[in-house]
From TrEMBL:
PANTHER family (alphabetical): RIBONUCLEASE D
The HRDC domain, residue ranges: 233-313
Name of this protein: Ribonuclease D
PROSITE patterns per UniProt: HRDC (PS50967)
UniProt xrefs under InterPro entries: 3'-5'_exonuclease_dom, Exo_C, HRDC_dom, RNase_D-like
Length: 411
């Protein structure tokens, strides 16, 4: 029933149909070379796009390797491939998967681990990114499948420890269902984007994701330790750095998620407390457990090394930065730049509202800040954006508004 405003009563919306089992049944896990080659032959003989997904064990393992790869294609069905017994080498599949479009959800999360197995797309469709560009309010796979296809996906295993062997049956069902309807979802989203005049935008975005290189290593990654904002003294920061680096080495060696080796809270607590001996360290709550007591000498060695540092070698209170200073300081350091940024943000927000595209998908915030802090001397805003990695559709949409914003001065 519709009310006087033309909206649909929620009671009239059909309940989503639960997807409880793969339509073709649960396939056996591909775990040897003969099965992998047979899978490659089946997918080479299939037709249309290929739905792809990968499962990692991010909260459990240090590495970001794929512990399961799911594939589905018309004429080939679904394949569940275990990379681990195959030495994480799935290159036998590469010829069959090269050429057809891959359909992934949040592709940037999976492409790196897939590349480690020897698999990379030559064309890409990202359903999450497509949903953002289409202006959908919720772009998780479950909500999109429910709202656009009327189906309810299984929940509950996305954050599981996929390094576990054998993989439980219900996890495998969940994994198979994740690729069950990806191509159908892609078709619906393609129609929506085409109707909105955004399909070319989407193709540009997908290509940017596909061709993006690995992210540059963070400078001083230890500064991301949760709770570090409580610390101001250089010697405390040195303690955090020493424990973080010691933890990172151990986590990489054992392939265990760093937080499971030593919680961030323990690192910060040790830096604040500054124990004066290994015994005092082992008396602290988090370091008192059996597993941590065995590592007391290791952790104490890191803390002691930090304590012996020459003052000139202590970390600075704030992280070194490239480019503009923190925005909070702009008004004092360059009021005109602050005025430009305020105007530019408003302009981008207005374009986003008009086109029903999230602001963060219109332009990278860092690129916008750089533009406003140091506008191009020649006035070539389009060239500045292009050099900074903006796509042509973004440049065409935003350049006129940003050129106007850059003329704003502080009062």
């Amino acid at each position: 029933m519709q009310d006087g405003l033309g909206t649909t009563d929620e009671a009239d919306v059909p309940a989503p149909v639960p997807l409880l089992a793969p339509v073709d049944g649960l396939p056996p896990v591909v775990a040897d070379r003969d099965a992998l080659r047979a899978t490659a032959e089946a997918f080479a003989a299939g037709s249309g796009p290929i739905a792809v997904d990968a499962e990692r064990a991010s909260g459990f393992r240090y590495s970001q390797r794929a512990y399961l790869v799911q594939l589905r294609r018309a004429g080939a069905g679904t394949a569940l491939v275990d990379p681990i017994p195959l030495g994480s080498d799935l290159s036998d599949l590469a010829p069959a998967l090269t050429g057809p479009e891959w359909v992934l959800h949040a592709a940037s999360q999976d492409l790196a681990c897939l590349a480690e197995t020897g698999l990379a797309p030559s064309r890409l469709f990202d359903t999450e990114l497509a949903g953002r560009l289409a202006g959908l309010p919720r772009v998780g796979l479950g909500p999109m499948v429910e709202n656009l296809l009327g189906l309810a996906l299984e929940k509950g295993h996305g954050a599981a420890d996929w390094s576990r062997r054998p993989l439980p049956q219900d996890w495998l069902v969940y994994a198979a269902l994740d690729v069950e309807v990806l191509v159908e979802l892609r078709d619906v989203l393609t129609g929506m984007l085409d109707e909105q005049g955004k399909l070319d935008w989407a193709h540009q975005e997908f290509e940017a994701v596909r061709t993006a290189g690995p992210p540059a290593p963070r400078a001083e990654p230890w500064r991301r330790t949760s709770g570090i904002h409580k610390l101001r003294k250089p010697r405390q920061l040195a303690a955090v750095r020493a424990l973080w680096e010691a933890r990172d080495r151990l986590a990489a060696e054992r392939d265990i998620a760093p937080g499971r080796v030593l919680p961030d809270a323990a690192i910060v607590d040790a830096a604040v407390t500054a124990p004066d001996s290994a015994g005092a360290l082992s008396a602290m709550a988090v370091f008192r457990g059996r597993s941590q007591r065995r590592m007391t000498a290791y952790w104490w060695s890191a803390l002691a090394a930090a304590e012996r540092l020459d003052p000139a070698d202590l970390p600075r209170p704030t992280a070194p930065t490239e480019g503009p200073p923190p925005v909070a300081r702009w008004a004092d350091r360059d009021p005109d730049a602050a005025a430009r940024l305020t105007a530019a943000r408003a302009a981008v927000a207005e374009v986003g509202a008009e086109r029903t595209v999230p602001v963060e998908n219109l332009l990278q915030p860092d690129l916008l800040r750089r533009l406003c802090w140091t506008p191009p001397e020649d006035g070539d805003v389009a060239g500045f954006l292009r050099k900074g990695g903006a796509r042509e559709w973004q440049i065409a949409l935003l350049t006129p508004a940003l050129e106007q914003a850059l003329t704003v001065r502080s009062a």
